[in-house]
Design goal:
Helices cover 54% and strands 15% of the residues. It has 495 residues and is of the alpha+beta class. Strand 7 and strand 8 form a beta hairpin.
Length: 495
Amino acid sequence: MIFRSPHDRRRLSVVARALAQHAVVSVMALVVVGATAAIVCVRVVQSQALRQAESSGQTIAEKIVAPLVTPELYDLDPRAQKALDDRVMLRKDGSTILRIKVWSEDGRILYSDDTRLIGQSYPLDPDDRRVLEQGGADSDISDLSKSENSLEKEFGESLEVYVGTRDTDDRPILVETYFSVGRLHADEAALIRRIVPVVLAALLVLGLLLVPLAYTLASRVARYERERQAMIRLAVEASSAERRRVAGELHDGVIQDLAGVGYALTALDAQIAGLANIEPGGSPPPIGALRATLRTAQRLVHDDVLALRELTGMQYAADSGAADPAAALRVIVDGLRDEGAPVEMIVRELPPMPAAHRAALIRVGREALRNAAKHAPGANVTLALGAEADTAYVTVTDDGPGFDPASALGPVDGHIGLALLADAAEGVGGRLDLRSRPGRGTTVKLTVPVPSQQLPTQPAQSGGGATAADRYTGPGASSTSLTSTVDATETAGAG
C-alpha cells in the first residue's frame, strides 16, 4: 500500500480537479464546435441547393414554359393546356421536380400539373409580385401554411422557386417550381459526415495536446496553494511560539526583577518611615543601607528597560526583515556572551536581498543560537554569516552533546521546531541542513538564493583565522541546492 502525505493528497486533489475541469470544458467545446460545424454545413448546402434550384427554375420558366404560354392558355383552352402539360411532364420525368405552376399578373393560376388548381386565384405575396414585375428568381423552403400550397402538403417540405418571365405576348407571368428536398438533405448529411469528424478530430487532438499544459498549470496551482498554506501555518505557529517565548522571558526575567524592585521599595519605605518615628535617644538606620537598597532597585529597573528594549527591537526586526542580519544576530551573540557562553561570530558582507530572506537568516540564526545555549550549555558555539556561490548563509555550530535529528522535527519546549524552520526556508526558496548525532555536536545551516552578480568579494569582518566559507567546507558542509529540506545525517558536526 502506498501512503501519501496530506500535501501530496491535496496536490493530487487540485490536479485531479483541474484535469476534470479541462475534460469537461473539452467535451463541451467538442459539442459546441460539432453542432456549429453541422449548422454551418446545413447552411452551406441549403444555400448551394437554393442557387441550383433557382438556376433550374429559370431554365424551366424561360425555355420550357414561357414559349407555350399563349393567349389560348389564358382562355383555359384544353389544347394549349395539353401542349404545355406534355412539355412539363417530359421535363419532370426522372427529375426532382414535384410541381409547376404558372401565374398571371392578376394572381390567377393559368397552368398546373395538378388540374384542380387551374383557374383558381390567390393574392400574390409582395416578394412574389416583385419577382413577377421585375423578373429574376427567388427561392425558399416552401411554406405549407399558405392557402395556395394546400395541395402541396402531400410533398412535405420542398424547395420553392419563383421566376418572373414573359409569355408569347410579352405579358409578365410568374412560374413557380417545386423541387424535392430529399437530395438537399442527402447532400447535407454527406457534407456533415465529411466535415464534422475532421473538425472534431482536430479539436480533440488540440485538447489532448493541452493536457500536459493543464497538468503543469494545475501542478503550479497546487504548489502555490501548498506554499500559501505553509506560510499561513508558519505565521500562526511562529506567532504562537514567539508569544510563549516572550511570555517566558518576561516571566522569568523582567517580572521577577520588578517583583524584587517592589519588595526593595517596600523595605525602603519602611526604613524611611522609621526615620520619622525615632524615639529620643534612638539611633537612625544607616544611610549606606538605604542607598544600597535604592541602588539595587535602580539597577534592576535599568536592566529590565534594556532587556525590554532588546526584546521588542529584535522581535520587530526579525518579523519585518528590516534589520541587518549581522547587527541583529550580534545583539544575540553579545547577550549570550554576557551570560558567559563562549560564542564566536564570523561575518562576511552580505549582498542586497529581499526582506523575507533577511528575516529568515535572522530567525534561523537566532533560534539555532538559543537552542545551542539551552541544550548545550558551556559548549563552544560558532555563528558564521556570509555569502558564497549564489547563496547567502547562516551557520551555527556547537561541540555540545548533540542529539538524534529525527527526534527534533517539531516544536520543542515552546520554541520553534526544526520542521518550522524548514518551512521558513521553503518560504524563501532556501535550504535548511541539520547535522548532528549524540556526542558529536550539532550544525544548523540555512542557505537562501541570491543573484550571483550581487555577491560581495570582501574578506571576513571578524573571525578566528579562516573565513566562514573555509570553515564550513568539507564533509559536514551542506549542499547549496535551493530545495527546501531538512538533511538529518549522522555525520559529525563541526567542533
